Amino acid sequence: MISNSLYSLDGILVFGLLFVCTCAYFKKVPRLKTWLLSEKKGVWGVFYKAAVIGTRLHAAVAIACVVMAFYVLFIK
């Protein structure tokens, strides 16, 4: 079931939203911020970039999370 939902468009959107929200939360926790978000380039830079997207576009990300939750719970 997980592999089937991972390859669908809505599964990828849910994963992306959860990843951005999680990284934005990590940016607020000091110990996690120094551990995960210290690198700004390379593979570890993806976490930093997702955290920046989550904090700068927090209103849009929150609205997208609510819309996706409504879609997953009631429409899908």
UniProtKB/TrEMBL annotation:
<comment type="function">
    <text>Involved in the early part of the secretory pathway.</text>
</comment>
<keyword id="KW-0333">Golgi apparatus</keyword>
<keyword id="KW-1133">Transmembrane helix</keyword>
<keyword id="KW-0732">Signal</keyword>
<keyword id="KW-0812">Transmembrane</keyword>
<protein>
    <recommendedName>
        <fullName>Protein kish</fullName>
    </recommendedName>
</protein>
<dbReference type="Pfam" id="PF06842">
    <property type="entry name" value="DUF1242"/>
</dbReference>
<keyword id="KW-0472">Membrane</keyword>
<comment type="similarity">
    <text>Belongs to the KISH family.</text>
</comment>
<feature type="transmembrane region" description="Helical">
    <location>
        <begin position="46"/>
        <end position="74"/>
    </location>
</feature>
<dbReference type="InterPro" id="IPR042863">
    <property type="entry name" value="Kish-B"/>
</dbReference>
<feature type="transmembrane region" description="Helical">
    <location>
        <begin position="6"/>
        <end position="26"/>
    </location>
</feature>
<dbReference type="GO" id="GO:0000139">
    <property type="term" value="C:Golgi membrane"/>
</dbReference>
<dbReference type="InterPro" id="IPR009653">
    <property type="entry name" value="Ksh1"/>
</dbReference>
